[in-house]
Design a protein that fits this description.
The structure is a single chain. By secondary structure, this protein is α+β, with helices and mostly antiparallel strands. The chain folds into 2 domains: 3-177 and 309-388, Aminopeptidase (3-Layer(aba) Sandwich), CATH 3.40.630.10; 180-305, Alpha-Beta Plaits, CATH 3.30.70.360. It has 10 helices and 13 strands. A hairpin with a 2-residue loop joins β4 and β5. α8 (316-325) crosses α10. 46% of the residues are buried.
């Protein structure tokens, strides 16, 4: 088996995966069923780990013997929406133009899933001494919500692996750290009145603006902190208000205003500690509003929290992945969050390495280069060689 051959097999699988719309708002069960049929073709079964209402599932499976020291290949099944994006080809059909493969999820991250699925039958038939574990999650794109329940089962049910490879797009270089992300939704409820009679009501928008200014001030302070010599870019924690909405008409004191924000922290930073002054300001505003109008107030809800992924000192996963990738470059970290921190938090030595460029992720006309699939195939075959020893 050569990298070109494995890459060709993976691209055929990729075409099937792209054709299944797994936008996070949709179910991913058609893709999970596809993977199960693929695995069943060489006698491997998988285990589903469902969400609360059964509309989505993680899937994990073991190829080879149930022994310690195997490798987990982990990827998420969901993709971001294509709504409003100016695609020049069908995002749900793999389209090749020159040396690029276009389609939603080609690089983020169905290309890695396709390579993993293409490798699996060859490991199954080659008498591996240690196992290959596949781990496919749901709802990574909306806060890494699906993976924790699967990771808990893997830790409980499977022999301890030597390494976890999370296949986010890194252009097949090894990444040893990522920031954490936590997201919140703040809802301010005011009291409606004519906008000329401000003494008879309270504008939720005006209260929200003051609270958002607190976040803007905090973001500015965080920008002055951090380690300029560290591996992250930007080198500090970041905070942004991503959504805001409120009010009925220009001449009505707004009854409700909602805004959502995210905080991306460095390893070692606790989001609740960073945001403690903001939470105190919300509590103070809530008390003041309730004193004036019983139905008014401020509600703060945490939407998601994904832990940071800290570089491992002399980590097993990094040593192995660098050998498989032929990567002797510097230590690297990325500003986006992924499921690597969740695996690490469960005690697994973990690394991020996958085909494609993160600059293509979430874009119209998302693509992956054929050369990246070939590099990924070479990585997979070197990994498999280690499992035979």
């Amino acid at each position: 088996m050569t990298p070109d051959q494995l890459s060709a097999e993976a691209i055929a699988i990729l075409a099937d995966l792209i054709a299944i719309d797994t936008t996070s708002r949709e179910s991913n069960l058609d893709l999970i069923a596809y993977v199960e049929r693929h695995l069943a073709g060489f006698g491997v079964g998988g285990r589903r780990v469902f969400n609360a209402d059964g509309s989505k599932a993680n899937l994990y499976a073991t190829v080879g013997p149930m022994e310690r020291g195997g490798v987990v290949l982990s990827g998420h099944s969901d993709v971001v929406p294509v709504d409003g994006q100016p695609w020049t080809s069908d995002p749900w059909r793999l389209t090749r133009r020159g040396d690029r493969l276009f389609g939603r999820g080609t690089c983020d991250m169905k290309g890695f899933l396709a390579l993993s699925l293409a490798l699996a039958p060859h490991v199954a038939s080659a008498g591996a001494k240690r196992p290959l574990h596949l781990a496919i999650s749901y709802d990574e794109e909306v806060g890494c919500l699906g993976a924790p329940s699967m990771i808990a089962e893997i830790a409980r049910e499977l022999p301890a692996p030597a390494a976890v490879v999370v296949g986010e797009p890194t252009e097949m270089v090894v990444v040893g750290g990522h920031k954490g992300i936590a997201t919140w939704i703040v809802t301010v409820t005011g009291h409606e009145a004519h906008s000329s009679l401000t003494h008879l009501g309270v504008s939720a928008n005006m209260v929200a603006i003051r609270l958002m200014q607190r976040l803007a001030d905090l973001a500015e302070r965080l920008a002055g902190e951090g380690d300029p010599q560290g591996p992250f870019c930007p080198h500090h924690a970041t905070l942004t208000v991503g959504q805001m909405a409120g009010g009925t008409a220009v001449n009505i004191l707004a009854r409700e205003c909602r805004f959502a924000f995210d905080l991306r922290t460095l390893p070692g930073q606790e989001p609740e500690e960073v945001l403690a002054p903001f939470f105190a300001a919300c509590a103070e505003a809530d008390a003041a509003l309730r004193l004036r109008f019983p139905g008014a107030g401020v509600r703060v809800e945490r939407r998601s929290r994904t832990p940071a992924f800290a570089p491992e000192a002399d980590g097993m996963a990094e040593r192995l992945a660098r050998a498989w990738a032929g990567d002797n470059g510097p230590a690297r970290a990325v500003p986006y969050a992924a499921e690597a921190g969740q695996f690490q938090g469960a005690g697994f030595s973990t690394i991020i390495c996958g085909p494609g460029s993160i600059t293509q992720a979430h874009q119209p006309d998302e693509y992956i280069e054929v050369a990246q699939m070939e590099r990924g195939a070479a990585f997979m075959l070197r990994l498999a060689d280690d499992l035979y020893r």
